[in-house]
Amino acid sequence: MEQLNNDICYQALKTRDRRFDGRFYTAVRTTGIFCRPICPAVTPKRDNVEFYPSAEAAIAHGFRPCLRCRPEAAPGSPASAGVHATVARAVRLIDQGVLENGSITDLADRLGVGDRHLRRIFKEHTGVTPQEHAKARRLLRARQLIVDSNLTMTEIADIAGFGSLRRFNDAMKQAYGQAPTAFRRGVKTLSPEKPGSDDPFAARNDDLILRLRARQPFDADYLLAFFRARAIPGLETVRERTYARGFKIDGKLGLMICHFSADQAGVDVILRGPAREAVLEIGARVRRLFDLDADVPSITAQFSDDALLAPLVQKRPGLRVPGCWERFELALRAVLGQQVSVAAARTLAGRLVARFGDALPDDLIAGTGITHVFPTPQSLIGQELIPIGLTTRRAQTLADVIDLFARSDCDQMSGEGLIAAMTAIKGIGPWTLNYFGLRGLGDPDAFPAADLGILKASGMGGGPDKVKALESISENWRPWRAYAAQYLWSALEGE
Fold this sequence. Notes:
Layout: H1 6-15, E1 25-28, E2 33-35, E3 49-52, H2 55-60, E4 64-65, H3 78-81, H4 85-95, H5 104-111, H6 115-126, H7 130-148, H8 153-159, H9 165-176, E5 208-213, H10 220-230, E6 236-238, E7 242-249, E8 252-260, E9 266-272, H11 279-289, H12 296-301, H13 310-315, H14 327-336, H15 342-356, H16 362-365, H17 377-380, H18 392-406, H19 415-423, H20 430-440, H21 452-460, H22 467-474, H23 481-490
Parallel strand pairs: 2-4
Antiparallel strand pairs: 1-2, 1-3, 5-9, 6-7, 7-8, 8-9
Helix pairs in contact: 4-7, 8-9, 14-18, 14-20, 19-20, 21-23
């Protein structure tokens, strides 16, 4: 897809082109309001508009979010996510609240850069300063929780980081011109199933429900099939349009049930248990798990003239790269999956979860088939791993990975640093590193060329079936080789 400029943005605005949703925002000088390009409002005159790369940038320049198209509900934009690696990490840390009680200097220190350099590259890539991003993000996520969750206003004020209901009300009135309660009038509320439902995956009265939208097109069916084939017994359950799992965040247990809408619009997330308090972090993890924000039109445009990939894109235009719930879990899955079938890897992972994972309370998971959460690195240190069915060599590799992730500085390591540390572990080769990069780090250019399935799919489509030759032609697919890999895997459906 072309690089955006004002002419392209205005044309997309006039045609309400959904491919550009989340990629830019239109601010109207005469009204002081900014919108998504798909907004149903009358198209403003060209001379009256300005274009911004993120909703945060529009807010920072004094514009109010539109109440009709809801910019806070747009898929994550490349600009707000940060196309620069350091900016991407900064955005993630800011969204986790690092500036609530810390300074820009503290944030820069965690990123290993100077504070002046951080301010410069952050403004360059997002259009705003880190402080402006944090302020605008707080408003946007509060507005999203008002409309897309069933939380009370007091709960939203606390979760969004306002500190008090009064500060929350004042900030929302100033930003939107209305009290927060006004946003729920006339809005279809997220409600549980009718009383008496015996479906353990249906919403209950005390569940927290969060609605997440996906950038279109979105192939939910492929994602569900992928996760169904790899679901770890006791940890995950995948039904026709549902993915559920147990999880643990900040020492608290929870159950997550994701219902994929029939119209492929996105996911409704049901949360149970004490861990549901981390709803914003959970929402971010779900977006990464299902790759909801992928700019698919831009990605597939690069494959449109490729003889090997074009037919696969045509078959599944909304295909995504499945992510992971957390890096440590994916790292162990990758090691357990070395040189064994998908079914065998599931069995090994299931034994690991049953033996070392914390058990979930019965009232939380009754009837779901889910029993445990995935073990933490700390809980696995020093444990005997051979009894789950591993060879001595594979058990040692797994133990070395566990030791790495148990390090106190592991959470602060960049993706590159983590890959470098894993490379030094005996038993970790190119396939494991690329697979971890692809799903664990969300690296859009990771490409496990030595994967037997990818080689087979390439040969079936008339491409090379040797590693070096495949790596050579994959240069044409940069920087989206992870999606190329997923398309090749999709060619093996029914094999």
